[in-house]
Amino acid sequence: PAQPAPVDPETPSPEPKKTQEPDDEKIEYFGNTRFPKFRAKPRRTITPGDAIGQATPTVKPAPQTLKEQAQQKWRDILSPEKNLESRARIIHDIGHSYFQDIVDLRDNGDKLFEAPKQLIRSSKAHYLPSVSGKTLAGQKTDVIDLCRGKTTLLAVNFNKFSELHTNSFIDPFEAAFADSEDAQVVRLNIEENWAKAMVLQMCLPYLRRHTPKDRHANYLIHYGDVEGLRKSMGIANSLIGYVFLIDKELRVRWYGNGLAVMSEAQSMVMLTQRLIPNKKK
Fold first, then answer.
1. Are strands 219-223 and 183-191 parallel, antiparallel or unpaired?
2. For labeling, which of 6, 205, 208, 273 is most exposed (least CB within 10 Å)?
3. Quick one: DSSP state of residue 34?
4. How many CB atoms lie within 10 A of CB 15?
5. Cβ contact 136:221 at 8 Å
6. How do the pLDDT tens digits run along the chain, 281 residues long?
7. How far apart are CA 143 and CA 132, in angstroms?
8. Which residues lie below 8 Å from residue 214, measured CB to CB, with a gap of 6+?
9. Which class for 11: exposed (0-12), middle (13-18), buried (19 or more C-beta within 10 A)?
10. What residues does 230 pair with on adjacent strands?
């Protein structure tokens, strides 16, 4: 058999080819420092027209006494599954910065997609998830209780900036259905950060004064994590306002985000009219 050629010990071995680092893995720093710049992560948005929400309607648990609540809390503390869920939430909160939402807004704009022009079929539509809180009227309730029985435009806000977006949908909705007893607007104000929640609580008197009194009962405030709501309802950026058209059976039939364009407002009004029952005079 042929013998391999002898290798000259003084001949340098060829250097391995350097794999070029992909652009999306490169880390950019501020000036000459080692502080990395915030970068927007790729948006994970839903496809317009897809069913959103939870597959089955919410079943409320039976009310618990204080003793039962304390026992359940203790079981959750000792539960490995609950501890893993809590750890996963903490890791997500650390990895997702408020500044990433700002950079995402700067790079991708304040609109995820244009709202669909058709209703989601009732047979394919999913249900609105449960979010509890307290209304400006002082009543403890749940968003599904506020929306049940009426065609509802649900506006979800995480901050003052996003109210500009939801108001661009609410104004034409209220103008079209001001005299309707079967259509309503429900506002859901969410604050996940405990420090900001304390500030919001101190600002409640100001919020009540600047919100018409007839809207207090349908203005719900929630403090705490809503990761389940984010995932099921396609909420990709907390700086953007979201609206959802909910039928009287609590199914999500249509949705929009960002500032409404004229075609979206017209579609919303037209689709809402389809959901409102025609009353014979």
1. parallel
2. 6
3. S
4. 6
5. yes
6. 555 555 555 555 555 554 444 444 455 655 666 555 555 566 667 888 899 999 998 877 777 788 877 888 888 888 888 777 777 666 555 555 567 778 778 888 889 899 999 999 999 999 999 999 999 999 999 999 999 999 999 999 998 889 999 999 999 999 999 999 999 999 999 988 777 777 777 888 888 888 899 999 999 999 988 888 988 999 988 899 999 999 999 999 999 999 999 999 999 999 999 999 775 44
7. 6
8. none
9. exposed
10. none
Amino acid at position 121, single letter: R
| 259 vs 203: CA distance, rounded Å | 26
Q: Residue 45 is encoded by which pair of tokens?
A: 């948005």
Alpha helices in the chain (DSSP H): 66-78, 80-95, 98-108, 143-147, 163-177, 194-202, 204-209, 227-233, 262-275
Q: Among residues 259, 252, 247, 220, which one has the least CA distance to residue 234?
A: 252
Which amino acid appears at position 223 of this protein?
Y
Q: Kindly report the pTM of this predicted structure.
A: 0.77
Residue 166 tokens read as 């939801």
Number of helical H runs and strand E runs in the chain: 9, 7
* Order of all β-strands in the sheet with 242-246: 140-142, 132-135, 219-223, 183-191, 151-157, 242-246, 252-257
